Amino acid sequence: QVQLVESGGGLVQAGGSLRLSCTDSGGRMYDMGWSRQALGKERETVARIDSTGFRKNYADSVKGRFTISRDNTKRTIYLQMNDLKPEDSATYYCYAKIGANYGWGQGIQVTVSS
Question: Are 46 and 62 in contact (CB under 8 A)?
Fold first, then answer.
């Protein structure tokens, strides 16, 4: 069982940076990632990382601006978001892939003002 808790969201101006964190208190290491959902839009996976931290994938919309990483000693993954744009505004969700299923965090708001 996973318990995912996100932190680090907020309001930032376009061009600014934020770092999101997600801590899993469940105890096991999983493949994990970040998805986001803006009002009226479908949820989009923006970055994922395997349990070792070596394999990472990004959506085209964030490549070169976002970096996903993890510290397994802290059971935490991070999403460093640079050069933020108003279209990055969304609720961001951390997830863990548990076999064929997913566990989700509660979501955290990121708002980028123009």
Answer: yes
